[in-house]
Give the backbone structure.
Amino acid sequence: MSPSNATLIGFSAILMWSLLSLLTVASGTVPPFQLAAMTFALGGAVGAATWLFRPGAVRALKQPWQVWALGVGGLFGYHALFFFALRLAPPAEAQLVSYFWPLFIVLGSALLPNERLKPHHVIGALIALCGTVVLFLGRGGLSFAGGYLPGFLCAFAAAITWAVYSVLSRRFAAVPTDAVAGFCLATAAFAALFHLAFEQTLWPQTTGQWLAILALGIGPVGAAFYVWDIGMKHGDIRILGVASYLAPLLSTTYLVLAGYAAASISLAIAAALIATGGLIAAKDLMTRRN
């Protein structure tokens, strides 16, 4: 698989993650850890179901403990920290802090063998980050009061966790993507335990809510992790890092189209900044000759 194709496959994860907010809103009032347990179980089951047609694929689960620690630590660790951040700090501010992970991926790529971080990668990431800040500012005033510090620390730790998981996946490029199914199922188990410890069970009330959860498990909390794994292991990590800032922009756009949010000038400005940052960072990909 060529790096360009792997990058495009990884980019599809960003498109799926942009539907996360819309589908989560449509899923009703299911508590976060319960929702994670349900959707990760679906995501892992979808991947495992393909083993029926590829019997040898199940051997992908036989990996060293370091691989399992990275996979489960990345998937469950990020989501657990992010959920606690939303509990301990205002959601908009917590989400903004957590969205440092694309920048951390771009910077972290410099630590990988045969990867070269160029100035335009960093410039593109910073411009896209500015666009994300504008996007969140447009939703209303932000408050970073000291009392919310534990939540912001959780959000920052979540950003680092996802960046470390993504970048270090390149170190295990030989590990088949089928292993991600095992990571998802293990994450579902841990999420279920945290749900029992911290939450009260609330089931979806309508067919539409059940369908939203099914869509989450198949897409943003399912297939997205498989294609992201391919992109991180074989694609251009720096471009995918910057392109990840499209997720909150597209997410807000979908909420506007669905009537859950209102269009604004800040949305247009954020779109321009994120698009500009992405184009700058992807200069090499656009000028590369195949």
